[in-house]
Amino acid sequence: MLAGACHCGSIRVAFTPSVEPDDLPLRACQCGFCRRHGALTTSDPRGRLAIDAAPGSTHRYRFGRRATQMLVCRDCGVYVAALIEGPNGLLATLNVAGTDLADFAGRTGEPATYDDETDESRLARRLARWTPTTVVEVSPNA
């Protein structure tokens, strides 16, 4: 299990990949949002991602086609993950740069451009490649 958090720690992630981190793809999406956040993302359709957030710390931002929710920390502004609702539940691609996952340090993301995708092919790619995810608001331990 790989653990990380946004800059202020209000949003924590626990990523359990099905393979070693070095064997996972690392993408550098070329959209304006991801470039401005310095995002490096990964996903594993056979893994699991748990996101725990302090109450009120999350903001879900949508842009472009508005099909994806970008999960951003309200406190520190870090982009944590992109989320979609699939037929079997929530799926995500995790921003390993934003959540400071050390297992990906030193790796360079493969540039990814999705401008030519149709809505249908974009959804099919995400359903096939993104990680099953849970998002829970939890109060920190006293």
UniProtKB/TrEMBL annotation:
Q: Does the keyword Zinc apply?
A: yes
Ordered alphabetically, the record's keywords are: Metal-binding, Zinc
Q: Which domain of life is it from?
A: Bacteria
Statement: the UniProt record of this protein carries the keyword Zinc: yes
Q: Extract the Pfam families matched here.
A: GFA (PF04828)
SUPFAM superfamilies the record matches: Mss4-like
Domain CENP-V/GFA: residue ranges? 2-115
Signal peptide from the UniProt entry: none
Q: Which family does it belong to?
A: Belongs to the Gfa family.
Q: What is this protein called?
A: CENP-V/GFA domain-containing protein
